[in-house]
Amino acid sequence: MLIPRKTVQSKRVNAFLEIRSSRIHGRGLFARRLIRKGTRLIEYVGERVTKKESNRRGLALHEASLRTGGASVYIFELTDTHDLDGDKPYNHARLANHSCDPNCEFINEDDRLYLYALREIEKGEEITFDYGYDIAHFLDHPCRCGSANCVGYIVRTDQRKKLRRLLARKSAKKAEKALRKGDA
Ligand SMILES: [Zn+2]
């Protein structure tokens, strides 16, 4: 039997990156070629907003995510007074997924955010960075990055040990409750 092959659409972003569907989550960014460690790959662009406006949007996003289950946070800290809301279709950098073993990181250079390669990246590899979420609401952010050190939830590096310990002792629900009550 001849089974029709579905062509997976990919879209070129720049010399280094393209957009494709991701096994981690939704669409992701992928390397179009071998990328050397330290290469600047893309700028995170969006709307500059004051801290006050950014907090308002952050809360609204959080509430929406509780209703829809889609927890997408696109706001980055930029300066002491302003943040960057990257929830814009033209901001391709927003498509980079989280990994517990990321190959890229964002660096703030003169109040602009750029994604840099942390190591050499093979052609075809998915581009990832550490979302750095706080442990408090970890249940809202399950992780499917598939890396060997994945803790199952998107939680920033320095809190993963704690989460592992908690999960070993309690069920995920109880662990989160304990964290919120502060008796973890
Ligand atoms: Zn993970």
List the helices and strands and how they pair.
Elements: E1 11-12, E2 17-21, E3 27-31, E4 40-44, E5 47-50, H1 51-68, E6 75-77, E7 82-85, E8 97-98, E9 104-109, E10 112-117, E11 128-129, H2 160-169, H3 172-181
Parallel strand pairs: 8-11
Antiparallel strand pairs: 1-2, 2-3, 4-10, 5-7, 6-7, 9-10
Give the CATH topology of the largest domain. Beta-clip-like
**Can you write the helix and strand succession as a string?**
EEEEEHEEEEEEHH
CATH superfamily of the largest domain: SET domain
Unique bound compounds: zinc ion
Number of domains: 2
Are there runs of 5+ residues with pLDDT below 50, and where?
Answer: none
Strand content: 15-25%
Task: Tell me the major beta sheet.
Answer: 3 strands, antiparallel
Helix tally equals 3
Assign the CATH architecture of the largest domain.
Beta Complex
**Strand arrangement, largest sheet?**
1-2-3
CATH class type of the largest domain: Mainly Beta
Mean pLDDT: 90
What's the overall geometry?
A: globular
Task: Say how many strands there are.
Answer: 11
What radius of gyration results from the CA coordinates?
A: 18 Å
